[in-house]
Amino acid sequence: MTTLTSTTDTLTRDALAVLQPGFTGTTAPEWLLRRVGEGLSSVGLFGRNIETPEQLAALTAQLRAERDDVLVAIDEEGGDVTRLEVRHGSSFPGNLALGAVDDTELTRAVAHELGRRLADCGVNLNWAPSADVNSNPGNPVIGVRSFGADPHLVARHTAAYVEGLQAAGVAACTKHFPGHGDTAVDSHHALPRIDVDLETLHARELVPFRAAIAAGSKSVMSAHILLPALDPHRPATLSPQILTGLLREELGYQGLIVTDAVEMQAIASTYGIERGSVLAVAAGADALCVGGGLDDDSTVLRLRDALVAAVRSGELPEERLADAAARVRALASWTREARGAVREPGAAAQEGTAPGTAQSTGIASDIGLVAARRAVKVTGETAPLTGPAYVAAFTPVANIAVGDETPWGLAAELTRLVPGTETGTYDGDSEAPAEAALRAAGERRIVAVVRDAHRHAWMGEALDALLAARPDTIVVEMGVPQAGPRGALHIVTHGAARVCGRAAAEIIAASA
């Protein structure tokens, strides 16, 4: 039976409260501030919104001047996925590197330092960590974003990450429930399907999420994936069986459920963002992430009005929308209270210890580099460098989560350590990339940098040709190290973040 709405204003505020929209620009546009004043409780930040720590702190202060408890969310996993350091590469190595070290205290310390930097800039909700078990090495979207392929390793590091992040006053958002690790399709482009039985799901995918819930994760993000064993018709984000039946009732989770971006094609191309948003809230989601691609006021109004209309038509129970909005506000209250335990936003930026500042000092601020160095695995021996090297970077197409605006590799770091080093970039469309690299290198020693070589046939073929001609080539794998070691020296970094590149460059330069 449909519950009659009490007032339009309350309904509208609840509909706005469950949205987590993005926007364009490095200051808050007038329309966004107006919606915050009308009841919008959350705002999502992306790389396009961030220039410096000082600017970010000013932006979050601008939002809080309108509403003190607004949730400011960001997709800051560290490693390959960074928004804070989108133009330079992350100061933190990412999940696979942390899993490779397998020191939960290190993971907790890395997450705490990352959280401290977010809090210092006024960000209080992080869409991280990824708790996906990367059981499919061909996975095109998770890969190094996962702590690994062992469910129990992933579980203990997920819990440590959640604890470290939230100890800094930033709410964690464990993702992508119920597990995106066994997919062969990127849900940004299409709807992945995972055909596993319930026994496998409980023994593998759900183990890290149980650990995250036990660790007190303040939010969980749903995945746009189809699991026929649980729901043969709707993806997890839109499934009452998965969000309410499994996550709420079976696993006992009482925190905020956030959707992955509703404009991703797994939802948008099948249901449309308005219909998909209504179905998600009806299924048990409390907050709707949108704005990576759709980042304007009209999108917010479309979704707000779709939710209001669904309540009025009886399709969406008003009490379900009210419950969702209440959970958003409860998390906002937690973050406001937690803010009292950390410095005021902007303090670190003023002191030069925020992300991206050259003045960062001390063990805490260097913990990302410490972790990256510990994660490196070296196979083989090689003659010392006798001069500047040539870095041949074999570059795959970046998935949308990672983005192609963030630099990766080790060329910049190696050039700093070995002046005169040059680099060339080659991709799957390059004609005879190995031959081109050999010509460009001349007599210089070649450092071949790859990323998930096992997933890209052209990359493997280029390496084969390069090593046949120059056996002394140093190979650096900065993705998932599924392919076996090759080259005179084979370096595995378990990630492509800036600090991973520096750790590899230090090893190569040490022989110079």
Essential attributes:
alpha/beta; 19 helices; 512 residues; disordered N terminus; single chain; 42% helix
Structure, described:
The protein is α/β, with parallel strands linked by helices. The chain is 42% helix and 11% strand. It has 19 helices and 14 strands. A six-stranded parallel β-sheet has the order 2-3-4-5-6-7. Strands 9-14-13-12-10-11 form a six-stranded mixed β-sheet, covered by helices on one side. It has a two-stranded parallel sheet with strand order 1-8. It is globular and about 75 Å long.
The computed structural class is: alpha/beta
Largest sheet: 6 strands, parallel
Shape: globular
Q: If helices are DSSP runs of H or I spanning 4 or more residues, what is the number of helices?
A: 19
Strand content: 5-15%
Average pLDDT figure: 89
Strand order of the largest sheet: 2-3-4-5-6-7
How far apart lie the N and C ends? 76 Å
**Uncertain stretches:** 1-8, 344-362
What helical percentage do the residues reach?
Answer: 40-55%
CA-based gyration radius = 23 Å
Number of strands: 14
Provide a compact summary of the structure.
This protein has about 500 residues and is an alpha/beta fold. Helices cover about 40% and strands about 10% of the residues.
Helix and strand arrangement:
Elements: H1 8-17, E1 19-20, H2 30-38, E2 42-45, H3 53-66, E3 71-74, H4 95-101, H5 104-120, E4 125-126, H6 151-167, E5 171-177, H7 198-214, E6 219-222, H8 240-250, E7 256-258, H9 265-268, H10 273-283, E8 288-289, H11 297-313, H12 318-339, H13 347-351, H14 362-365, H15 367-375, E9 377-379, E10 389-394, H16 411-417, E11 422-426, H17 433-441, E12 445-450, H18 457-469, E13 474-477, E14 489-492, H19 498-509
Parallel strand pairs: 1-8, 2-3, 3-4, 4-5, 5-6, 6-7, 10-11, 10-12, 12-13, 13-14
Antiparallel strand pairs: 9-14
